[in-house]
Amino acid sequence: MLTQAIPLETVGADDALTDLLPLINAIGDARVVALGEATHGTHEFFTVKHRLVRFLTTELGFTDFALEASLTDAGEIDQYVRSGVGDAGRGLDVGFTVWNTEEMLDLVEWIRRHNASDLSDPELRVWGFDMQDPLASIEEGLANVSEALPSEVEYLEKQYRCFEVLGGASYAEVPAPAQDQCREGVESALAWIKENRAP
Question: What is the pLDDT of residues 102-128, one digit of tens each?
């Protein structure tokens, strides 16, 4: 017999949150709550996730929502929910494809409305934590360095050049010497970034 289950009264994204109140004790003072789903794209999983994000934000003060998408792709969504600038649909389209659904768009639009309201202190941010495409992240990083330290861009480009070898292949599929070259380049780039973080 299940003794820890919390029955849901509804799966509607905009429905009342009272049935979720028992989660307050279960979550306690945790600052990270993982919200998974058994399948990507199932309507009810996404609407329940929407309700849970609303609950965590409005009832428990959570301020960050992280997606299985790259940081650069999620950045477009984050800009939209914080400022209204951009297009939420396009942000979902360029990210991890399983998030390109009406249900996720509804959640993004709710986050935008929440952030634009008087209730958003602090506002809810959207982050990506799963690098789907390293090249997009490298390009954004190089663009940032180009603004701050333009004379150093060439050095970093050289460190990342190994990714041209990968093409569409995954890291595990390329020969060991190419893997070594990529790893050494990324480690050198990371060391440089740590040294030059302030500028």
Answer: 999 999 999 999 999 976 678 999 998
Angle among Cα 36, 51, 3 to the nearest 5 degrees reads: 65
Q: What is the pLDDT of residues 28-55, one digit of tens each?
A: 999 999 998 888 889 999 999 999 999 9
Strand segments, DSSP code E, in 68-141 are: 125-128
Residues 83, 102: Cα–Cα separation, whole Å = 21
Residue 31: other Cβ atoms inside 10 A = 10
Retrieve residue 172's tokens. Answer: 């595990």
Name beta bridge partners: 127: 66
- Please state, in angstroms and rounded to a whole number, the distance separating the CA atoms of residues 58 and 119: 8
Chain Cα centroid distance, residue 150? 28
Q: Is the pLDDT of residue 87 over 70?
A: yes
Alpha carbon 108 to chain centroid distance? Answer: 12
**Is 13 within 8 Å of 71 (Cβ atoms)?**
no
Instruction: State residue 46's pLDDT score.
Output: 94
Residue 90 in contact with residue 57, Cβ under 8 Å?
no
**Distance, CA of 156 to CA of 197 (rounded, Å):** 14
Residue 65, φ and ψ in degrees, nearest 5:
-125, 115
Indicate the residue type of 167: G
75 and 125 Cβ atoms separated by less than 8 Å = no
Confidence of residue 175 (pLDDT cuts 50, 70, 90): confident
